[in-house]
C-alpha cells in the first residue's frame, strides 16, 4: 500500500498531497474502483452533486472498513444550488446521498458569476460548517478577484481552490495568490487528458532520467508546485502508478522546464461539469 503524505490546511485539517477523482465512477463497478483506490492508499475522494455518484462514494467508504476519520470525502455545490439556504439544503442532500454524517471538504463547484450569488453561497457553507455538517470549506474554479471578494465580505478564507491545472496551464499567478493567503491549490484535469501532453519530448526524456512514466512525472510536478492532483482511474494498476510519485524528486530546473510547456486553458464551457482526469 502506498503512503500518501499530507499537508495542513488553513483550518488545521490534514490533507493528502494526492487524491482520487471519481467522475463517471458509478454503479457496482464504480464502488469497486473506489474501494480499490482506498486499498491502494488513497485517502482523499472527490465527488460532486453533478457527478451523480455520491451514493457510490459513500458506499465505498463503508465497504473499505477504515475508520471514518481516515478518509476525506469532498463534494461540491452545483451552480443551480447557489444562495444561502440553497447551499445548506444542497449539503444536506449530499449527506443523504452519501449516507455520511459529515462532508470533510465542501466546495462551491464554480462561481456561477452570471447569477452572482457565490458570496451568499459561501455564507451558507460557513453556517453549515458551524452546524457540523461539513468540516472544511473551499471553492472550485474561482479567480483571484472572486477569492478576495469572499474573504473581504466574510472574513473566512477558503481552505481549498480546485482549478484546472497541468503543465499546459500551470496557473502560476493563481498559485502565488493561494500561497500568500494560505489557500491549498487542488488540480482537476492534472494530466490534461485528451491532449498530447504525455507525449511531449521533454516529459518523455525526463521520465527516462527518473525511471518513471510520463504520468508519474507530471503528477510529481503537481506535488512540487504545491498542488494536490486528483487523477481519475478505475484501473487498480493505474491507481497504484498514479499514487507512486513520492519516491523521487524533480530538480528546480526540471520543474521550471515542465512549467515552460504552458499553452493556456484547455477546457471550455461550464466548469460545473468538469472532468477530473
Total helical segments: 10
Strand content: 15-25%
Structural class designation: alpha/beta
Helical residues, percent: 40-55%
In the sheet with the most strands, the strands line up as: 3-4-5-6-7-8-9-10
Q: Low-confidence parts, pLDDT < 50 over ≥5 residues?
A: none
Oligomer: single chain
- Rg for CA atoms: 18 Å
Instruction: Give the strand tally.
Output: 10
Apparent shape: globular
Mean of residue pLDDT? 96
- Biggest sheet features: 8 strands, parallel
Order of helices and strands: EEEHEHEHEHEHEHEHHEHH
Amino- and carboxy-terminal Cα gap: 22 Å
Mind explaining what this structure looks like?
It is built from ten helices and ten strands. The chain is of the alpha/beta class and about 280 residues long. Helix 2 (about 55-65) crosses helix 3 and helix 4 packs across helix 5. The two termini are about 20 Å apart. The relative contact order is 0.15.
Question: Notable features of this structure?
Answer:
single chain; 277 residues; alpha/beta; two-stranded antiparallel ribbon; 10 helices; 10 strands; 40% helix
SSE order and pairing:
Elements: E1 6-8, E2 14-16, E3 20-21, H1 27-40, E4 44-46, H2 54-64, E5 72-77, H3 84-98, E6 103-108, H4 118-130, E7 134-140, H5 144-154, E8 160-164, H6 172-181, E9 184-188, H7 201-210, H8 214-224, E10 227-229, H9 236-243, H10 252-259
Parallel strand pairs: 3-4, 4-5, 5-6, 6-7, 7-8, 8-9, 9-10
Antiparallel strand pairs: 1-2
Helix pairs in contact: 1-2, 1-9, 2-3, 3-4, 4-5, 7-8
Amino acid at each position: 500500500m502506498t503512503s500518501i503524505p499530507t499537508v495542513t490546511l488553513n483550518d488545521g485539517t490534514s490533507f493528502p498531497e494526492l487524491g482520487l477523482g471519481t467522475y463517471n465512477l458509478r454503479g457496482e463497478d464504480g464502488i469497486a474502483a473506489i474501494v480499490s483506490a482506498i486499498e491502494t492508499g488513497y485517502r482523499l475522494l472527490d465527488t460532486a452533486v453533478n457527478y451523480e455518484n455520491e451514493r457510490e462514494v459513500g458506499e465505498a467508504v463503508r465497504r473499505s472498513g477504515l475508520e471514518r476519520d481516515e478518509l476525506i470525502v469532498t463534494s461540491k455545490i452545483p451552480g443551480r444550488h447557489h444562495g444561502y439556504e440553497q447551499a445548506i439544503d444542497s449539503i444536506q442532500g449530499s449527506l443523504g446521498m452519501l449516507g455520511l454524517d459529515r462532508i470533510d471538504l465542501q466546495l462551491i463547484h464554480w462561481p456561477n458569476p452570471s447569477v452572482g450569488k457565490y458570496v451568499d453561497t459561501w455564507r451558507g457553507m460557513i453556517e453549515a460548517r458551524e452546524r457540523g455538517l461539513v468540516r472544511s470549506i473551499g471553492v472550485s474554479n474561482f479567480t483571484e478577484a472572486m477569492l478576495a471578494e469572499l474573504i473581504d465580505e466574510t472574513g473566512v478564507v477558503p481552505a481549498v481552490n480546485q482549478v484546472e491545472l497541468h503543465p499546459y496551464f500551470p496557473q502560476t499567478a493563481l498559485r502565488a495568490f493561494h500561497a500568500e493567503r494560505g489557500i491549498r491549490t487542488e488540480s482537476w484535469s492534472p494530466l490534461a487528458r485528451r491532449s498530447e501532453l504525455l507525449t511531449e519530448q521533454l516529459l518523455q526524456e525526463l521520465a527516462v532520467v527518473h525511471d518513471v512514466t510520463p504520468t508519474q512525472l507530471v503528477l510529481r510536478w503537481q506535488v512540487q508546485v504545491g498542488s494536490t492532483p486528483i487523477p481519475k482511474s478505475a484501473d487498480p494498476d493505474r491507481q497504484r502508478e498514479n499514487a507512486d510519485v513520492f519516491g523521487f524528486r524533480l530538480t528546480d530546473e526540471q520543474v521550471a522546464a515542465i512549467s515552460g510547456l504552458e499553452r493556456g486553458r484547455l477546457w471550455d464551457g461550464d466548469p460545473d461539469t468538469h472532468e477530473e482526469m
